[in-house]
Amino acid sequence: MKDELFSVAGQVVLVSGASRGIGRALAEAFVRRGATVVITGRERATLEAAAKEIGAKPVVCDIADASAIERLVKGVLGEHGRVDTLLNVAGVNRRKRVEKYTEADYDFIVDVNMKGPFLLSTAVGRAMLERGKGSQINITSLNNDKPLRGVAPYAMSKAGMGQMTRALALEWGPRGVRVNSIAPGFILTDLTQKLWSQPVMKDWGVSNTPLRRLGEPKDLIGAAVFLASEAAAFMTGQALFVDGGFLSGYAWPIDLDA
Question: Which amino acids are annotated catalytic?
Fold first, then answer.
């Protein structure tokens, strides 16, 4: 039996950072469930290839460029008349000791991870507020709970995005627009495969995850579809940690059967 409570069919969905990885997986999931999906990314060739493969509509947009965001939103609204669900997925990272970060490093990370999502959320949000309806879903991070070493600006930007989620939910809730976030655990993507292929990293990640595996982009689909659907109509300002139980506690390295 099909349950319409969880349906996203007929929605117009905009997904940033959808050329690959998590963004692409979520975009494809919404397409398969009957939504009209517009995806964005910085690299035209990669974006158009992804769009063709999953059945989405591509629009090249550098999320760090305010004018590009305005053109994107104006174009989507002009063609489709509305955006029902926005997924803010675009994100970047550079790993190094905190004292080694340059101003250029900081600006690159924060512009893509926090400034861009804020400008995209508000640009889409204005149209949602006019309709009195809409859902926004921000992809944050385990760093919203506590920071990992070596990614200070990334952790800071994702923490800011978490507070942005709450702030927008607080202001927009009375006007019918919901804003929530999904904080993924350690997810295997093309960009993280090299890191997690290192035995010491894989062993650490798996041993500290109660479900005893690293995540895949498809593991985030259920949470995203839920938050975009009427099933989550009374949820806003929330963070769903989809992490295989990583934050449940510490995996103490002792033999309980000894």
Answer: 154
Question: For residue 197, is it within any domain?
Answer: no
- The rounded mean pLDDT for the chain is 95
Overall number of domains in the chain = 1
Decide if 200 is inside a domain.
no
Q: What share of the chain is helix, strand, coil (3-state, %, to 5)?
A: 50, 15, 35
Classify the C-alpha dihedral 49-40-183-64 as positive or negative.
positive
Longest dimension (CA), the chain: 66
Asked if 29 and 103 touch (Cβ cutoff 8 Å), the reply is: no
Integer Cα distance of 207 and 32 in angstroms: 34
Which range marks the domain in which residue 93 is found?
4-189+218-242
Q: How many CB atoms lie within 10 A of CB 179?
A: 29
Q: Following DSSP, what letter does each residue of 46-100 receive, concatenated?
A: HHHHHHHHHT-EEEE--TT-HHHHHHHHHHHHHHHS--SEEEE-------S-GGG
pLDDT score recorded for residue 1? 55
pTM of the prediction? 0.95
For residue 4 the two structure tokens come to 């319409």
CATH of the domain at 140: 3.40.50.720
How many Å apart are CA 114 and CA 109, to the nearest integer?
8
Strands 85-88 and 177-184, sheet pairing: unpaired
Element counts in the chain: helices (H) and strands (E): 9, 7
Report residue 190's pLDDT band, with 50, 70 and 90 as the boundaries: confident
Q: Report pLDDT for 191.
A: 77
Per residue in 201-251, pLDDT tens? 999 999 999 999 999 999 999 999 999 999 999 999 999 999 999 999 988
